[in-house]
Design goal:
The chain has helices spanning 10-24, 36-43, 47-59, 99-108, 129-142, 157-169, 184-196, 211-219, 237-246, 268-280, 338-348, 354-366, 368-394, 420-429, 460-477, and strands spanning 63-66, 70-73, 115-116, 180-182, 202-207, 223-230, 234-235, 249-254, 285-288, 313-318, 330-333, 400-401, 409-413, 432-433, 435-436, 449-453. By secondary structure, the chain is of the alpha/beta class. The strands form 4 sheets. It has an 8-stranded mixed β-sheet, sandwiched between helices. Bound molecules: pyridoxal-5'-phosphate.
Amino acid sequence: MGRNREVPHLYEKLAQSLAQAIASGALRPGDRLPSVRGFASQRRVSVATVLQAYLHLENDGLVEVRPKSGHFVRRRHLPAPAEPRLLKGPSAPGKVAVSTGVAALRESMRDAAVVPLGSAVIDPSLLPIRALNARLASIAREMSTAGAAYDAPPGLPGLRRQLARRSVGWGLALHEDEFLTTLGGMEALNLSLRATTRPGDTVAVETPTYFGVLQAIEDLGLRAVEIPSRPREGMDLDALESSLKLSPVKAVVAMPTVSNPLGCTMSDADKERLVKLLARRDLPLIEDDVYGELSFDGTRPRPAKAWDDGGRVLLCGSISKTLAPGYRVGWLSAGRYTEVVRRLKFSSTVANPTLPQLAVAEFLASGGYDRHLRRLRAQLYAQVDRTGEAIAATFPSGTRVSAPSGGFVLWLELPAQVDAYALQARALEKKVAIAPGPIFSARGRYKNCIRLSCGLPWSPRVENALAVVGELATLLAGTARKSA
Ligand SMILES: Cc1ncc(COP(=O)(O)O)c(C=O)c1O
């Protein structure tokens, strides 16, 4: 074409300016690049030029494409800390006692001066709270009687309609009558445990697992067997199988999609195996799917319930990790336990407040939810990544960190000398909350582990809080600080 190759193409210039933005830190790992169309019109170039620039950056390893989500700045290849070492075999059944350990964390949630790295809460600035509140206000204004009457189980039809519609995207196609609305995912879990067990029964749980599940088990007078979770693949099904032969398990609680605290997601094959394994023994699976929409790869993994043809899976979800935890809107699709959970809901909390359900139903119907989820996932991915970098820089050598497939928490195994409760107490003195490892175990394991939340946008306050925890951990470990 007779073109002088010394003169860069337009797409090369574009790629160069983006590469500079990445190098300067204006764009950080996990940040989403502008949309192709938006960037093209902003820079007054063709869509093809932008696409070529993005491809160029991709070939250079600076950018990655995530299906259905867009182009993102690639994670920097830090020397990845090793993943935590976890238990090998199942435990024997035993009592659960985590509530004392959880108390300090609960107390810290009320103190606005504390940097909340302990609770899995997303900063309100990342959530469409204003839009949701505006809907709630206009519903309250326009419908003078809205919210005044009991909304008896199974809960608001309009919300269940929206959940049924969304469930198609989860690969489930549940009917609205299959949903019960609940006070968050926590009530769904409690109702599921009550519907499937009696006090004294044994429940199998992953380890480590969300302390809320363990608290519910403790409060209902149940016993637990711990089934090890593999760092990336989730519950070890061989261990579960051998445990089911040995222990009189009455129900299994699992988080097959984006677990808490490890952030792992089971493969479809393992989800199917889990459901079939329990079906052969006619056992219920309580599936905690609260983080199901927050997978980093932009897809919505199917819940294990997608393989349930006997109504044995009780699917628990909520909007707490994606919209507004304070609205306390959750749901339960309980299969063959539908009638029992409706009865239990009525006898315990009677009904959900109506107004939040109406506002959430309208919000889900409005079509803005999926757009919000795409943005949120990208933002959380970036925050998890930055937190990982800060840990690599300031935590003691030998620290091992999880590699979550989604969500916004990191699980850390610290050097053996570090006592997580001592670290929690010292960090709280400096107004930083962390979640100590032992509350994620029925047996108080993980004494040298902690969970850190990455739900806050990156800021000097977060950076300092992490540095405080890293320094205290280094002090407790009695080792020199790791140099990044
Ligand atoms: C794994 C898991 N399940 C359930 C819940 C409870 O959710 P909700 O706030 O909707 O009750 C949480 C909250 O942190 C969680 O992390």
